[in-house]
Every structure is written in C-alpha cells, then in structure tokens.
Amino acid sequence: MFEENDKYFEEKNRKEIVNRYETLLNNKKPFYFDVTDFESIIEFYVEQNKISNAFEASSIASGIFPSSPEIKIKKAQLLLDKGKHVEALSELKTAIFHDPKNFEIFLLLGITYLNLNNYKESIRQFEECIKILPHEVKKDEIFLTIGFHLAHANKFTSAIKYLSKSIEINNNNIDAITEIAYCYDCLTNYNKCIEYYLKAIDIEPLSEVNWYNIGLVYIKTKSYKKAIEALDYSLAIDPSYLSAILAKAHILFYLEKYNEAVEVYKEYLIYDSGYADVYYLIGECYEKIDDVKNAIKYYDLTILKDKEHADAWLGLGILKMQSEDFASSLVCLSKSALIDKENPEAHYALSELFFKTNILDDALNHADIAVKISPEETDYVLLQSEIYEELKNDKKAISVLEEGLFSVLEKAPILYRLAGLYFLNRKEKKATEFLKNAINEDSSLISDFFNIFPQAKDCEMFKGLLNLLSKNKKNEL
Known about the structure:
- By secondary structure, the protein is mainly alpha-helical.
- It has a domain at 411-477.
- The protein has 27 helices and no strands.
- The chain has helices at residues 2-26, 35-47, 51-64, 69-81, 85-98, 103-115, 119-131, 139-151, 156-169, 174-186, 190-203, 208-220, 224-237, 242-254, 258-271, 276-288, 292-305, 310-322, 326-339, 344-356, 360-373, 378-390, 394-404, 412-424, 428-441, 446-452, 460-476.
- Helix 2 runs antiparallel to helix 3, helix 5 runs antiparallel to helix 6 (103-115) and helix 19 packs antiparallel against helix 20.
- The chain is elongated and about 100 Å long.
C-alpha cells in the first residue's frame, strides 16, 4: 500500500515538473531544472511515445549540463532507438570520461558496438559492465539484457551463454528461459528449444504464448499431434488467440483434414471477419473435397473482402474453366494475371484455357511466360510442348522438352513424352533410348505412356526393351 502511494506521488510530481517545463518553454521564459528533473521529463516523453519532445528536452539538458553522464545516457538511448549508432557512441564516450565506473554506460556501449557489427568490442564492453555491477543491481536482469541484444543480432550461441548465466542466478526468470528457447529455435536445435519452452510452461502453465510457441516448434519437427495439443492448450487459455487458431487450421489443411480445417478457419472468422486470406483458405478446402459450390462461394467472399486477391481470382477461374464456363474463366484468370504478373500458375491456367478453346497463339504466349518464370515445373513444359504439337511443329515440341530436361525437377514425364514424339516421328532408336531412361527414372508411368501413345504398343524395339527390363528385374529378385 505504501509503495503504491509512493508511486502515485512520484508520478504526480513528475507530471507537475513536465507541466512546468512545457509552460516555461511555450512562453519562451528562462528556466532551470536539475539533472534528475530532466531525466524525469525525458522518460515521460519516451513513455508517451513523444520522441521528438524527448530529443528536444535532452538537447536543452545537454546545453545546461554538458558534462552530465546521466543526460548523455538518456540522449544515447534515444539515438540508439533512432538507429543513429555512431552519434550514440560519441555521447557514450563522453559520458564514460566523466563517469568511468557507471555500468549502464558500458552496457549501452556493448549494445552500440553490436549494432555497429563490432562483435568483439561489444563483448569486451559487456564484460566490463558485469565486472563493475553494484551489489544492488539485479545481475540476472543484466545478463538477460545482454543475451537479448546478442540474440537479436543473430549471435545465438553467445546469447545462450549470457542467458544461461541469468537462469543460474534466477532459475525462474521466464524471459531468459523463453529467449533461450528462441535462440535454439533459430539454431534449428528443436529438441533443446522444446526443453526450454517446457521449462517456461512449468513456471507459467497459463501462458497462451508459450503453448503457441511450442506448438510451432512441434510443427517444425513434424510432430503434428503434439502441435495440435499445444495449440489446443493455448486456445483453452485464450479462445480468441488468432495466431493459434490459424496455426491449428493450417496443420489440419496440411494433413488433408479439410473438413476439420474448415471448422477451425470459420472459428477464426468469429473474431476477425475481415481477413480475406481465411475466406480463400476455406474456399481451397472446399475445392480439395470437390465441394465446388462452397468453393466458389468462399472465393467470391474473398474477392468481396479484397478485390486484389490474385489467388482467389485464380481459384475461381480454374473452377469456371472446369465447368466449361470459359468466358467467366477468362475474366477471372486475366484478373489474377493482371494483379500478380509474376504468378506462373495464372499464366499456366490461361494457357490451358486458350488451348482448350483452340486459341493457340495466346495459349503458347502464356505457356512461354509460365515456363520463363518457373522453368522447374514439369507441367508447364509439357503444356508448352503440347501446344507446339497442335501447331504441327514437332521439331519445336521436341526441342522445348529437351531444353526442359535441364531445368525441371520431375524428369520422367518429359522423358516419356520425348520417347512418344520421337516414335511418332519414326525415330525409333532415339525413342527407345528415351523410353529406357524414362523407365529407369520412374517405371510406374509406363501405362500412362501407352495410354497417350497407344500405337507404341506395336513397336518391336519397345517390346524388346520391355522384355529385357522385365528379365533384369526377375534376375535381381
């Protein structure tokens, strides 16, 4: 009770100082405040997020007390927050000249050198800070501060060292524990990361954030059941924790549990009905389970929320194409490609649409764009080749496939198609060579090959190759 009264009077006193300062400043009257008063004024403005006022007060204070280390520290902190690290360093060097035993200056010097990418010097300053810490200062908090800044400068191993020292002093320092977990996460040491999040949960079992964070780590380790359990705990504590709701829905989507994912995404919309991406994801779930009516409904709702949602226009365009509403499909797919010109899927879908409607020049144009953007996509190269076939340009149909072999991730379908095209062009030796390579790459596609090129079943060279491969397989067994 007495502490609350002290805080109340301290805050009241600070406001009176700030009011007097502002009155005298606005009236352009001379004034005098001591160093402690100026510290209070600067702190007040920082807390109110009035940074320009804080800078002004620090400049006035520097003019009155040019040698005050306290004012220099305040000004350096403001400069650090503004990203003016060189200027902050200058202020701190002046401050330490006047107060060489002030641990706070060394702490800020360490942070400043870290921001200037001088890691070696920053550690030297941090160690100096620790060496001269007064007994009344909480050492665990200083180690935490050092560890925090090292972690956010991506010096994770060093950060863990200082954060561990914080925990040695105070094993219930929840901030140090979760910061170590974060470091191990960044180092992809997920087992240690989970270990520290579990320690944090033991201390604060009702922290929805820690349950959420450990859920994300379980996702990274593909422990999806544990991830969902952790997210459920997070949501039991705070049912409106939107990040946890989305993470759970995403897992269910990834696990192809689309009906369950829909329910969780809809739960999200109870708390935030304006997020277009969630409507889109619901639409995608419905599309995956062939509920076209609801898929279209939610793609439409996505566009209602965000007219520039390229993926929703794309999804809608593909569904319209599948139902042979080619005019509507063209509108949707064109809109998607216009919004996101570098989306190869939109150009691929447009190419398919023009190919289906026999507008071959436009089909080829969009296939070329798709391949240029994503040359690793086998389907794009296959469609490009198919269009050249339809244009009676077998030479080009073959050359784009051969070029594609150098870039595509899935080579087998390209090899099978080359075998078929060379067969149709009466180059059976080359066709057999490609078919052999195709079978070696993926023998499961051989039936698809004969469905596309049924004439090839009568080819003696193919028969001989298939018999030989069959014998080799039996010998291996």
